[in-house]
Task: inverse folding
């Protein structure tokens, strides 16, 4: 708001003083200046914002990407892989042991 008053022709110098002395006259002019400046900024920044929106939109659709990456890191650790291999080997041994007991029971 202070810069908007300073950019006003009568606003040079002390911005607060300009607001307090002629509030009824200057307030509409300041509001107009702020609106014009907002419009200018929107027009200047629209291409930049559009690029940012285009880059971020696919990311916004994937809400689980952080957790997926975190789980992927944990799965790819050698300690975890060795544990999975041991677990599968134990299950396979248990199945083989079960089949042996069934085959001995049938004899």
Result:
């Amino acid at each position: 708001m202070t810069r908007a008053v300073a950019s006003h022709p009568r606003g040079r110098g002390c911005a607060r003083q300009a607001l307090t002395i002629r509030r009824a006259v200057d307030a509409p002019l300041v509001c107009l200046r702020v609106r014009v400046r907002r419009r200018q900024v929107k027009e200047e920044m629209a291409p930049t914002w559009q690029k940012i929106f285009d880059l971020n939109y696919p990311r916004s659709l994937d809400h689980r990407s952080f957790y997926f990456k975190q789980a992927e890191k944990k799965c790819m650790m050698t300690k975890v892989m060795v544990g999975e291999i041991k677990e599968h080997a134990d299950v396979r041994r248990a199945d083989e042991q079960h089949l042996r007991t069934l085959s001995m029971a049938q004899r």
Notes: The CA atoms of residues 5 and 11 lie 5 Å apart. The chain has a mean pLDDT of 81. Helices lie at 2-7, 15-21, 23-61, 65-75, 78-106. Residues 23-61 form the longest helix (39 residues).
